[in-house]
Design brief:
Layout (H helix, E strand, L loop, with lengths): L8 H7 L3 H6 L13 H8 L3 H11 L15 H33 L4 H38 L4 H4 L10 H9 L6 H6 L11 H42 L5
Helix pairs in contact: 5-6, 5-10, 6-8, 6-10
């Protein structure tokens, strides 16, 4: 049996597709070194074997990451966590999956897989717009409510609360329309199904897409079950305390 340093990148990524992401964040695209052993990759890239092995072991925990316990935390901290997750989605996850899509599209020229080269960029663009819109409206509004609770109503008045132009309920209804952002991709990939004979690139991409959807559902659960109920309670309290602005 080969030791870790004697195994090829292809073997390791086949065992654990998320190792490809760990390599990506080290500036290494697994597809460029599939037949190369860890020992040789270490020499080529100047990265010690212990670091590569740690990243391989850490990547095995990819799907086991637990969401922080936010239920008892203040709204500002919940929003800070959600904004941090948005940052990771935009800066790391979407670009990485975009790279995987480009790599596999170079090998598969037709069919549903090839269609991802058109569908994924549109999904990413729409998803990023939704994130920024949510931060500019819902998150900013909730923080304005918190400021009003602390005796600073000015930010809240900018939202037109005098005329009920905005509310948590309305923003929640708008948010629910985006709860299944990955529906088209899931349908296109037949629920991320692949076979043992599928290209390694397809296995890596589909597992990343499936894991990303799992992250989005956990993220949405925090918004729906922690952020929004707390925000509704805060909104009610603020409007009752500021009757002249209701």
């Amino acid at each position: 049996m080969h030791t870790f340093q004697q195994r090829t990148i292809s073997e390791l990524v086949t065992d654990n597709a998320f190792f490809a992401q760990a390599l990506h964040y080290l500036g290494i695209e697994y597809a460029d070194y599939e037949s190369v052993t860890i020992e040789k990759l270490s020499a080529i890239k100047g990265i010690d074997i212990a670091t590569l092995e740690k990243n391989f072991l850490d990547s095995s925990k990819y799907l086991d990451l637990e969401q922080p316990k936010l239920a008892g935390q203040p709204l500002s901290l919940v929003i800070e966590y959600l904004k941090h997750a948005h940052h990771l989605f935009i800066k790391y996850k979407l670009p990485y999956m975009g790279t995987l899509v480009k790599q596999i599209s170079a090998s598969v020229q037709e069919g549903p897989i090839a269609d991802l080269s058109f569908v994924f960029p549109l999904f990413a663009e729409d998803f990023i717009k939704h994130i920024y819109h949510e931060e500019d409206t819902l998150f900013t509004y909730v923080l304005a409510l918190e400021a009003a609770k602390d005796g600073k109503p000015e930010p809240l008045l900018k939202f037109g609360i005098k005329h009920d132009k905005i509310s948590i309920a309305a923003l929640h209804d708008e948010h629910e329309g985006h709860d299944d952002e990955m529906g088209s991709i899931r349908k296109l990939t037949s629920d991320y199904q692949y076979t043992n004979e599928s290209l390694l690139g397809i296995k890596v991409l589909f597992q990343e897409l499936k894991a990303f959807e799992k992250e989005l559902r956990a993220h949405a659960a925090i918004e729906n079950h922690i952020l929004l109920p707390k925000a509704l309670e805060l909104e009610k309290a603020v409007k009752e305390a500021l009757p002249s602005h209701a």
